[in-house]
Amino acid sequence: MKRFRRQFFLGMLALIAATMAALWLHKRFCALPDYAFLTGWILFAVMLVLTFFNARKKLPFLALGKAETWLQIHIYLGFFTVVLFLIHLNFRAPHGWFEITLAWLFALVSASGVVGLFFSRTLPRRLATRGGEAIFEKIPALRHALKTGAENLALGKEAKSPVIAEFYTRQLAPFFEGPKNFWLHTFESRRPVSALLAELDDLRRFTNEAERATLDKLAALVRQKDGLDYHRALQLTLKLWLFVHIPLTYGLLVFTVLHIVLVFGFSGGVQ
Amino acid sequence: MSEQLPAPDFDAQNYARPNQNWVCGHACEGQPCRHGPDSKGRCRATAECKPVLETKPGETKGRWRCTRPGEPCESGPMPDGSCCRPISKCSPVPTLRVWRRRATLAVIAASFAVLLVLLGNPSWRNNFISPGEISSAHSGEAFAALAATNRLNQNCGACHVAGNSGPNGMVKAALSAEPGFFEFNKFLDAHAAAPTAIDGSCEQCHVAHNFHQPNAAAVSCAFCHAEHQGKLMAAATDADCVFCHGDTVKMAAASTAGSVVPVIHHFAEDHPQFRFITEKWRDPDTLKFNHALHLMGATIPNLPGGAKLDCAFCHQLDAAGAFMKPVAFENNCRVCHSLQFDPETPQLQLPHGSAEFVTAFLRSLPKQYADLAAKKNQPDANTYVQQKLVALRTQFGSGDDLERRIFFSTETFGPDTQVGTLSGSTRALFPGCELCHEVKSSEAGSPAITKPIMLERWLAQAKFNHAKHANISCGQCHDAVHSKDTADILLPAKETCATCHSPRGGVVDTCATCHTYHNAAVAAR
User: Fold this and answer.
1) Percent of residues, chain B, with pLDDT higher than 70
2) What is the extent of the structural domain holding A44?
3) What's the predicted TM-score (pTM) here?
4) How many whole angstroms separate alpha carbon B496 and alpha carbon B211?
5) Searching chain B, which residue's CA lies closest to the CA of residue A144?
6) pLDDT digits over A48-86, tens only?
7) How far apart are CA B363 and CA B339, in angstroms?
8) Domain presence at residue A37
9) A186 domain-assigned
């Protein structure tokens, strides 16, 4: 925690210093006739550095520094890029279909990055609070094991309770069948599992001692499945934001390259 | 570097690698096969093992041995050497990583497709890449007609060379741009704003480009006039002016011999004092006028109607409201200075504007009195004329004396009788031409009046609008009540303007408030 605070303090200090310096330089040099070309190239270079973070993860064998360091640079440089973007626009709104599209792409990439940062700072904490560990890639197998266990309890050879079998077929089978309640888990709602456990509890009135023991085991499996769904929902959220951030980054780069071609092609100095 | 070994309880068979592209279709059942899918997502499952043929010395057939990890299976390999426990084929499942790569490729492909479609279609291209609305001066029917006259392209190509071509042409134009892609030294050149190729397009219609002072370096039109900013072309800002006028190098280069062009950043701070003050200009007009006397003098009579003479009586706004109409004798002076020379005959007045006319008028006085008698229906015109002439002779002497009196007298007090439109004992209503004019004797002996030179503008490089200053009194800027000399230039000093036109005064103080870049005289040529 101490290390994280130090990193955060140094990162924020560097970001504020860089922002102040950039704004001072903007005020000092914004009258240069080709100022927009300069800020544009700087912005593009920074965007390439940010994009290279994704490539860095794919090149673990190269001695390019720790991925953690790269992530910190990516985060703070990402915030600084927003400042550079505003400076490049000269703090004016973009005009024209192409420039507006380009600006929106930049805004979406930046916003998704901020959302991703928020997720990566809050969701692991929530997972740790909930407890349990599940590797995302193994969740289907774990779910299958829970489903098999529940089926054996309710419908297996040793199961002799028609009440439990009926309840399992009607209520628990769909629950164990696949991942459930993605959005409710994302928003930390436990309403569905509480309802299911309440129904299981209601069932106790119609069961004998042996069946109650089975119900207890089923309730434990339901809780485990709910925990698994919770892990899946949050871990998937931790991965899904990248489905916006990374593809749009490359789309932004395509549009940016065209933007560079257009501004040079249509600039005053074209022969 | 020490070798990192897996933990003792590490299950290598069930290790899920997050960077794998595909996972076994049986993984969701908790039973992934040992081989796993290949890199292209194809199932590689065959059997639980690949039996090995073991041949002992002396044997010819040999024996197939089960190689299943863990324990060998009970049945053992088939006689043909194949495993007896084939694994059912699965449909490998792509990981999130693959889906993300697919999404990325889809976005890239969609970006290229959209751009190619929009840039490939000429009718869509211009609308799509235009960085904003063109000003009304460079769009619409009037511009289209002008473009047709000058054989210009109606669209982007009217100004941009690249606008006449498709994607290939745009790339070629970009590659030949000046400055080029990576000429950072030129981007950093603080003195560059020189005309570029695009100014050639401007000059197709705007024929005289260099409208500024001839000693100034030429500046590209686009430096001040940013297009694509909406219907109204963005006005030039102070930063545009200060780019040159705040640059000591540029100003030194622009200085002509003997003159120093000052470096200016803000009007209130370092704009120089007006030249009519620093160079002590004097009004060269030969007309004699005492502002202080007319505004403050106790002997100045009230105007017809009783109003007191004030600035506004003589100085009236022109139709545009920007400047004052020139002061004219007929409109502003005659009401007091009526040119009446015969105290008893107010109907007869001297003509104004030409000394020759005055001389001719005086030498035809008998005829003038006769005409007046006819107008007044005098029964005996000759007697009337003689009476008038005798009265004049009595008062002024001979005709030459009268003429001399009229041209050269500077007496300030006149007859004690009603004259003109004013009555009472007042200053002379017409003491003589020389009271106001410079009167000289010509070589022929006749009097000659120097024609007054009334300059309409003193600050020719600046614009001003009196109407916009109507809320302040004249005296706040023009110190007329203390001016007794016609040669005084009654314009305010810079500090007077800066009282309001400054950040502290709160009134707009941009360069363009008073100045215009373009030299109208050059432009007109």
Assistant:
1) 87
2) 2-131+241-265
3) 0.71
4) 30
5) B29
6) 999 988 777 777 777 777 888 888 999 999 999 999 999
7) 16
8) yes
9) yes
